[in-house]
Amino acid sequence: MALSPGTKAPDFKLFNSDKKEVSLSDFKGKNLIIQFFPAAFTGVCTAQMCSSRDELSLYNGMNASVVGVSVDMPFSLGEFKAKNGINFDLLSDFNKDFIKAYDMYLENFALGMKGVAKRGVVLIDKDGVIQYAEQTPSPGDQVNFEALKAALEKLK
Description:
This protein has one domain (30-153): Glutaredoxin. The protein is built from 5 helices and 9 strands. The protein has helices at 43-54, 56-61, 74-84, 97-101, 145-153, and strands spanning 13-16, 21-23, 31-36, 64-70, 89-92, 105-108, 114-117, 120-124, 130-135. The strands form 2 sheets. Strands 2-1-5-4-3-8-9 form a 7-stranded mixed sheet. A two-stranded antiparallel sheet has the order 6-7.
């Protein structure tokens, strides 16, 4: 992984499911958990986002915000968010610039589909420095939420 702990996080500007632009600077002074996922409405991706939904109060209590990032369009992410009661922003990287900057670009996904986000998570501290980064071995594997929580705990 090109981005590793101690690296300054690349800036970004992406649209959320409400078509509002969101950038890294919006989270200054807070820790930020970026959950990368290949595609809305798929099983493991839904489990990943719902796990973050269910743990949001824990993350918020540790001065952390959560966003999810995929290459789905904002409209699809809005439907996915509503259907699953997701309580944090889902950001569209339809042009794939962000996932490439964060080394989360998956060339070959499934059924011949190309160019989605890898499954992974990045924790950025309140100063914009990466403190934890994980990519799963395959899109069917879930991120290590316990390792994420341990990294977040160290930022207290």
